[in-house]
Amino acid sequence: MKRSILALASGAFILGAAEFVMMGILPQTATAMHVSIPAAGHYISAYAIGVCVGTLILVFGRKVPPKHLIILFMAIALVGNTLSAVSFCSPMLLVARFISGLPHGAFFGTATLIAKTLADKGKEAQSVSMMVMGQTVANMLGVPAGTLLAEAMSTLLCEILSWRLAFAILAAWALMTIVVVISWVPSIDPIKDAGIKGQFRFLTHPGPWLILLAVFFGNSGIFCWWSYVSPWLQKTGGWSSSLVPMLMMLAGFGMVIGGLLGGRLTDHWRHAGAAAIGQSISCLGLLLVLITPGNQPMTAVLTFWIAIGLFFTSAPQQLLMTEAGQGGGELIAGAAVQVAFNFGNAIGSIVGGAMLTTFSMNYRYTGLGGMPLALLAVGLLAFYSWRCETDTDAIHRLRETKVD
């Protein structure tokens, strides 16, 4: 891996861990902030809202070199996670989580452009997938490690301090990432200045909306199940709570495998077609969540399988949107994927909760709520590939043959 891509992957790791670690330390945080578990769920929502609002940074930062934008995003992550670690009341933590989410979408839009620009010819998708791998590694190692750290430290420190260590470590990691980005990421020219309106011109075409809807519905479907994966593993699979972090590591490993496979296929085939295959993997997994009996081997396999599909789609979808925004909207287009991703997460959690309420807390029925949404995403991607993605570069590889 090029050092520049490794530096970008380090930033992706911070944002991936900051987004999801709260799910693992929610009980300790709720206790420290003197709020209920449902009220503590607002700390997750605050981050997602920050992701959406933070995209506006790119609107006014279009003339700034991408490397400088990455440094700015890591500085914001440093501030947000530091404030999270020292928050003394619930409102302060809500604000800190909002600040932590601000750079998320903007970072991935900018990092996708840099990774694509620095990639060897024909390996653009693999370069993007290696950058995104930082987020998958965060899910494989960072989130379970944060959960275990909070639980272990609670026996040595008071309950109020234990969960803060996760955010303190992320803040330190953000500072380290600023240093490596300055040292390893070369400067590239800013995107074409198309003005404020010009950055959104790509949205006047139907193709980008098809991709964003596919991201939204695909993640809504997966997060119907993923939002409740911990109780699903325990209630349906029979796993003990102490083993759930290990199964989250298994899921993270699946995300890494999916990201690598998706990036490699995308470099050799249609981007939307590759994304449709990844979404189909998750859709099949959600069907099996519903129809298969609950036992430990099957739930472990499905956790790994659906995680593969979740990040199989990352590189092709990021590239599709970056290419759709060419002419001045590349950064906004790349960031829009993360906005759709997070919005889908929020809606998926709501739909999954409704399925649990309807079917007497039977966690298998989260698959019933998620499968139609994931299937709709497959259809949107397939339609885009069929109607909009006609140039697969094959014509450029043809050799001229003269016949006497």
What does this protein look like?
The structure is a single chain. The protein is mainly alpha-helical. 77% of the residues lie in helices and 0% in strands. It has helices at 3-24, 26-33, 37-40, 42-54, 56-60, 66-86, 90-118, 124-153, 159-162, 164-184, 195-198, 206-226, 229-235, 244-266, 271-291, 296-312, 314-324, 330-358, 366-387. α1 (3-24) runs antiparallel to α7 (90-118). 56% of the residues are buried.
Q: State the low-pLDDT regions, or none.
A: 391-399
Helix content: over 70%
User: How large a portion of the residues is in β-strands, by DSSP E?
Assistant: under 5%
Largest sheet: number of strands, sense, barrel closure? none
Instruction: Please give the number of β-strands.
Output: 0
**Overall pLDDT:** 84
- For the termini, the CA-CA separation is 49 Å
Q: What overall form do the CA principal axes indicate? A: globular
Give the count of helical stretches: 19
Find the structural class using helix and strand composition: mainly alpha
Radius of gyration over all CA atoms, rounded: 21 Å
Brief descriptors of the model:
mainly alpha, 0% strand, 404 residues
List the helices and strands and how they pair.
Blueprint: H1 3-24, H2 26-33, H3 37-40, H4 42-54, H5 56-60, H6 66-86, H7 90-118, H8 124-153, H9 159-162, H10 164-184, H11 195-198, H12 206-226, H13 229-235, H14 244-266, H15 271-291, H16 296-312, H17 314-324, H18 330-358, H19 366-387
Helix pairs in contact: 1-4, 1-6, 1-7, 1-8, 1-10, 4-7, 4-18, 6-7, 6-10, 7-8, 7-18, 8-14, 8-17, 12-15, 12-17, 12-18, 12-19, 14-15, 14-16, 15-16, 15-17, 15-19, 17-18, 18-19
